[in-house]
Amino acid sequence: MRPQLLGASYSVYVRIVRLALLEKGVAFDHQEVDIFADGGPPADYARLQPFGRIPALVHGDFTLYETGAITRYVDEAFTGPALQPTDPKARARMNQIISIADSYLYRSLVWGIYVARDDAAKNNVAIDQTAFDKAVARSRRSLTALADLCAGPWLLGEAFSLADLHLAPMIAYGRVTDEGRSLLQEQPRLSAWWERMNARASMVATRFGAEG
Q1: I want to staple 108 with a disulfide (CB 3.0 to 4.6 A). Which of 13, 128, 139, 203 is the partner?
Q2: pLDDT, tens digit, for every residue of 172-201?
Q3: Is the pTM of this model over 0.90?
């Protein structure tokens, strides 16, 4: 039975799951669910995700939410290239990178820089420079930490993993802005990783309009 992914294509976290499914070669159905639509998500979505966030996955009679849980399930429930290392240290490093991206980078790079720039442009208002500068500083700290951990050519070294899939959509949004591109350019190791990552078929297939 084909799994069904629910969530909006614009979402970083929906894209992470789409990347995992594509990298595994899993055929799936995708239902757009926009949590920012007038009135919020459909009422029946609450039975799948009681917190009203995206994504959620339905696979037969099994439902799951939280991106990290979904991508690990996808990797373990379906055939295809393994996306998690078996070595305990490598697996711990993968989880560390994912946690850094979630806890420190996402809010500052995607919301603090990309969304702040986009909202200011759409509404023709001045950006909150103090908050924006803080987001740039926090993003720089996070990207520096991730670059220090990047073992190249992929984040874990020779093994492609969920860590790569988790970070890439965040970087993609950041790079839409001048500040995000400059921050990435400050990190040559991470920049080289991005060039390889951005060329993968799964990334090409899931690009959004602003990426160009």
Answers
A1: 139
A2: 999 999 999 999 999 999 999 999 999 999
A3: yes
CA 123 to chain centre: 26
Q: Residue 170's closest CA among 29, 2, 15, 4?
A: 15
- As a residue count, the chain comes to 212
Distance CA 141, CA 83 (A): 27
Judged on CB neighbours under 10 Å (0-12, 13-18, 19+), 131 is exposed
CA distances from 46 to 41, 54, 56, 205 (A): 8, 11, 10, 29
Q: CA 53, CA 179: separation in Å to the nearest integer?
A: 28
Other CB atoms closer than 10 Å to residue 11's CB: what's the count? 21
For 78-96, letters b (16+ CB in 10 Å) and e give beeeebbbeeeebeebbbe
CB 202 within 8 A of CB 22: yes
pLDDT at position 24 is 98
Q: Which residue type occupies 80?
A: G
